[in-house]
Amino acid sequence: MLKLFPRREAQGRRRHAAAPGVLFLVLLLWAWGPAPLQAADAPDPFAGVVEAQLPNSLKVLILKESRAPLISLQVWYKVGSRNEDFGKTGISHLTEHLMFRGTARYGAKVFSREVQKAGGTDNAFTGRDYTAYFENGPKTELKRWLEMEADRMKGLSVTPEGFNTEKKVVLEERRLRTDDDPVSYLLEETRAAAFTAHPYHWPVIGWFHDIESITREDFLKYYHRYYQPNNCTVVVAGDVDPQEALKLVEATFGQLAQGPEPPQVTAVEPRQYGERRVTVRREAQLPYVVMLYHVPNWRQPDAYPLELLSRVLSQGRSSRLYQRLVYQDRLALEAGADYDFDTADPTVFTLYGQPLPGKSAAQLEAALNREIKRLQTELVSATELQKAKNQVQASFYMSLDSLFYRGMILGRLATVARWDLVREFIPKILQVTPEDLRRVARDYLKEDNRTVGVLVPIKTDKPVVERFRPGGQVE
Amino acid sequence: MSRQPGLRRGIWPVGVGILALALLCGWALAAEAPQAPIQVLGERRELPNGLVWLFSEAHELPLVTMQLLVKGGLLQEPAEKAGLANLTAQLLLSGTQKRSATTIAQELDFLGAKLSASGGADFATVSLTVLKKDLDRGLDLFQDVVLNPAFAPGEIRRKVTQLKAALKSEEDEPGVVAVREFDRELYGPFPYGRPVRGTAAGLSAITRQDLAVFHRRYWRPNNAILVLVGDLSREEAEKCVTQTFGAWAPGPLAPPKLPPIPPLNEPRVAVVDKDLTQANIVLGSLGIARANPDFYAFQVMNYIFGGGGFSSRLMDHIRENRGLAYSVASSFSPGLEPGPFSVVLETKNASAGEAVSLVLTEMERMRAQPVTGQELADARSYLIGSFPRRMDSMAKRAGLLGYVECYGLGLDYPWRYPELIQHLTPADIQRVAEKYLHPDRYLLVVVGKKSAMPSFAGGASPRKEEEKKDEEKK
Question: Model confidence at A381, in pLDDT bands (50, 70, 90)?
Fold first, then answer.
C-alpha cells in the first residue's frame, strides 16, 4: 500500500539512501508487538533488549541479533521541526546536514568516508519529533563509530563558508522535494491550514525564506541547546555482546557532560470548529485531494481502532478505497488513508486520492465522503476486521527481516513514546471490536474537524523538446 | 532509471539464517585468509521441464519468500506494443480461470501475504512473501496466477487506463521526464529506450490476443528462474517447487531480434522547457552489459567518479564544495544488453551551465589522470566490505540468488568477488574511463525553465557554447 505522508514526512541528508519516511511508518505502523498469537513458537524479537541510562542521562538500547556479523548504530536526538520557532523553521534539518561538516578530530568529509571505507553506510534524517543519525555495517566498526558519533554531539566545528555552502544544498533540497512537486506542495499547504497553534504547522524542511535567513549563530545556539546526552538515545542493534557494547557506549558517550534540560514544547492545537479548505492552483497533470482530521495518538486508547481503520480503508488491494474508488468505480489512480500512531503530539488521520483523467476532484471527494459515512453507519464485518488484524501481524514479521528497521522501531519509540510500547501494540490491536471502529469514525472523521486540500491543475501547453546537434540543426 | 526492479546494485532484496551466518563469518576472513573452502549462497537445481530453482534456508523468522524471474521483458516485446511485457506481468494478479481479481486480493490480504508482479527491462518478476503457516495457500495462489491468467477484457481496460494515468501523472516528476527523454534519445528504436510501463500509444495497441500469445511464448519454465528463501528444509523446498511448477509445460524459445543501438558521435542536447525552480539534468552515454569483462573496473571507476556517495568526486565538487546540488550521482545499469551510463543531478536553473561544465571537467580528469592509490584503496575496501550487507536479510538474499543466476555469476560469486576487485590498478581504472567516458560525445537532457537557464547548445565550456550558438545562426 502506498503510504503517502511517511514518504514525505522526514528529510534525509542523502537522496538514495534510506528514504526514512517510507521505511518507517510502513514499518512502525505495521510492525509492532511481540509474537502474534498463532506463532507462539517464534521468539519475541525484542525479548533481549538491554536498556540502560548513563549518569549523564543518556538512554541506551541494545538489541542482540546475530544473523550476520553486522551492526546498526543509531543516535536519536529528541529534536525536530516541532521544537522550532516561527522565522527559524528548518533549523533542525539544517543542523542535521551541518553535523557532517566535521569536528576538530574528524575533519569535514572524513566522517562518511571513514564509514564507507569499512564497507559501511551512514546517513541521517529529520522528522517533526526527532533527528537521527546512523551507521550500518561490519560489527568491527562499533567502537570507532561510537567515538565519532560522541565526538560530534559536542565537538562540531562549522566554518562560515561551510555553513553557507550547506544552506545552499538544503535550498536545493527544498526546491527538489517541494517547490517543483505540486502534490508535495499541496500537502504542505493543507497541513499548515490544519495546524494553527502547534509547530506541526510548518514542514520539516522549513519555509524557503526561513532557511535562507537562518544564521550561523542561530544554528550554534540550537545545536548547543538540543545536542546533549540527556536529550539523546543511542541504539545498537546487531551481532554484539550487549554488555560489551554497553561498556563501549559508556567509554564514549558516557564521558560527555550532561547539559541543561532543553525547553519543553507546550503548544497544543485548539479544537477545530468547522471545515477548512485549501486550494492550490499549479501546473500539474491531474488534480489531487487530501483530507486531514485531527485525531489522538498512541497516548489514547482510540489510537488502536484508528490504526485498524486506516488498514480497513487502504491496506492491500482488497481494502475499501482500492476496491471502490480504484477498482470498481474507476474514479481514482490511487486512493488511501494514513494514520500517525507514534508521534510526540497528536496529529492527523489522512485520506487522499488522485482522480483518473476525466474524473474530477469533487467526484473523488464525494466518494471519500461516502466511505467515511459507511464507516460511521455500518459495522465492519468480523471477517474484514480479522483480515486487518492478520495484516498487522504478518507485516510485523516481514518488516523484521531488516536489522536497521528493528533498530528504528526502538529508537523512534524511545524518542517519541517509550520503547516497550512495541510489546503492547498487537495485544491491544487484537482487542479492537467493530463497535470501536464505528465509534472512532463517528467521533473524529467529522466535517467540522477536518481540513481539505485540493490541487487544481492549471492548463499548460505540452512541453516542447528542443534538440540541438552540432551543425546548427534544431529538430 | 528504474528498469529491472530488484536486479540492481543497492536495491537487491536482503536474507539470512544460520547457514548465512556461517557463510558471512567465513566471508569476513576471506579477504585475508589464503584460500577458504568453496562457499555458496544456496543450492541450484533444475526440474525436468527446465525450470532452474535456487534455494537458501533461513529459519530466523517464520517466513518464506519466493521470486519467479521470467525472461519476458522489454527485450522481448515489439516496439509498436510498448508496455506489453509489463502489462502481461501486472495482469497476472487481475484474475485467473478460477479466481477473480477481487478474490485474489481478498485471499492474499486475509493472509497478510505480499504478492506482486511487475515487468522489467530483461525480466518480469513475481514475488511472494508469506508466513510459513500459510505457505500452502500462498503457493496455490502463486501457481494459479502464473499459469492460468484470464486476461479478461474488462481487466485489461481497467489496467490500461491506470497505466496511462500513471504515465500522465509522472509528467509532473521532472526527474522522471528527464530520464525518459534521455533513454529515448540514447537508444532510439532499441528496447531500452522505452519505459517499462510502455507508452500511451503502445498500450492502446495491445489486444487480449497479444497478451495471451506473449504469456504463452515467454512464460515457460525453461525461460524462468525460481528462487526460494526461508523457513524450509531442503526437502520441503523441493516438494514445494515440484508441486507448484512440476507440471508446467516447456515451450520453444527463440532469441529476440534486436535493432542496433544508434551511435553517438557528438555532444547532443535536448531541453524540455517547464516552469520549474530547478534544472533536472541527465548527462551520459552508453554503458556496458553485465557480461562485459570490464564490469569490475567500471564499478570501481564509477564509485570514484560519482557512484560512491560522499566519497565520490562529483559529490565532493558539486555538492560539498559548491553547494550546487542536493544530490548528484553517476550510475551504470548493466543488463543483458548495455545499459546507460549517466550522471543525474538537479540544481537551480541559473547554475545548470556551471554544473554541466563541472561534470564534463571531472569526466575529462578521470580519463587524463590515473586515480590516486588512496581513492582506489577506499573504493575497493567499500565494495568488498559492503558485500555482506547485500545478503543480510531474506529478501536481499533472494534477490542476490536471482541476480547471480540471471547473469551467470555462479553461487560462489560473493566469495569470488574480492578477488575480482582486489587486483585492479589505477591503470585499469583509467583504461575503462577512456573507453566509456566521453566528454566530447555525450547526450545531455535538461528539464527546467528555459528562460532562466544558460544555453546548452552543444556546450561543454562556455566558449564552445558560443561557437554552437554561432553555428545555429548560420
Answer: very high
Q: What was the pLDDT predicted at A465?
A: 72
Q: Tell me which chain B residue has its CA closest to the CA of residue A394.
A: B112
Interchain pair A403, B392: CB under 8 A = yes
Chain B residues within 8 A of A284 when measuring between CB atoms: 172
Q: How far apart are CA A244 and CA A249, in angstroms?
A: 9
Question: CA-nearest residue of chain B to A178?
Answer: B277
Cβ pair A169:B278 closer than 8 A: no
pLDDT of residue A462: 64
C-beta of residue B275 within 8 angstroms of C-beta of residue B354? no
- What global pTM score does this model have? 0.89
A294 forms beta bridges with A348
Residue A48 contacts B where some CB pair is shorter than 8 Å: no
Residue A431 contacts B where some CB pair is shorter than 8 Å? no
User: Is residue B228 within 8 Å of B66, Cβ to Cβ?
Assistant: yes
Distance of alpha carbon A353 from alpha carbon A362, whole angstroms:
11
Instruction: Express each pLDDT in A89-127 by its tens digit.
Output: 999 999 999 999 999 999 888 999 999 999 999 999 999
Instruction: Note whether B120 and B3 are within 8 A (CB).
Output: yes
> How many other C-beta atoms are found inside a 10 Å radius of the C-beta of residue A230?
18
Which stretches of chain B drop beneath a pLDDT of 50? Answer: 1-34, 458-474
Give yes or no: A475 in active site: no
Cα–Cα dist B224/B69, whole Å: 5
| pLDDT score, position B461 | 40
Please write the tens of the pLDDT for every residue from A3-30. 222 333 445 555 433 333 322 333 333 3
Closest residue on chain A to B455 (Cα):
A468
- Residue of B71, B63, B95 lying closest to B402 (CA atoms): B71
| Backbone phi and psi for residue A87, each to the nearest 5 degrees, phi listed first | 90, -15
Q: Are β-strands A465-469 and A348-355 bridged in parallel, bridged antiparallel, or unpaired?
A: unpaired
* Whether pLDDT at A358 is above 60: yes
Question: Measured between beta carbons, which residues in chain A are less than 8 angstroms from residue B21?
Answer: 66-69
- CB-CB contact of A437 with A387 (8 Å): no
| C-alpha distances in Å from residue B320, one per residue of A50, A345, B328 | 38, 35, 11
| CA angle, A371 then A376 then A382, to 5° | 90
Which of A70, A316, A401 has its CB closest to that of B108? A316
Residue B265: which of B433, B443, B446, B467 has the closest Cα? B443
Rounded Cα distance between A411 and A147, Å, is 19
Q: Is B467 on the interface with A (CB under 8 A)?
A: no
Contacts of A387 in chain B (CB under 8 A): 106, 109-110
State whether residue A400 sits within 8 Å of chain B by CB.
yes
CB atoms under 10 Å from CB of A161, counted, come to 11
Q: Are A312 and A438 in contact (CB under 8 A)?
A: no
The set of cell numbers assigned to B356 is 554541466
From start to end of B173-317, where are the E strands?
224-230, 268-273, 278-286
**What are the backbone dihedrals phi and psi of residue B60, each rounded to the nearest 5 degrees, phi first?**
-65, -35
Candidates B14, B90, B109, partner chain A, best to mutate (most A CBs within 10 A) = B109
Active-site residue (options: A65, A84, A96, A141):
A96
Look at residue A40 in the predicted model and tell me its pLDDT: 39
pLDDT at A145 over 50: yes
A13, A112, A116: best to mutate for the B interface, most B CBs within 10 A = A116
Do the interacting molecules here have an ipTM over 0.95? no
Beta pairing partners, A132:
A76, A125
Question: 3-class DSSP state for residue A241?
Answer: coil
Number of neighbours of residue B15 by Cβ within 10 angstroms: 30
Query: For residue B21, how many other CB atoms are within 10 A of its CB?
Result: 18
Nearest CA in chain A to B133: A39
Which region holds residue B178: left if phi is over 0, alpha if psi is between -120 and 50, else beta? alpha
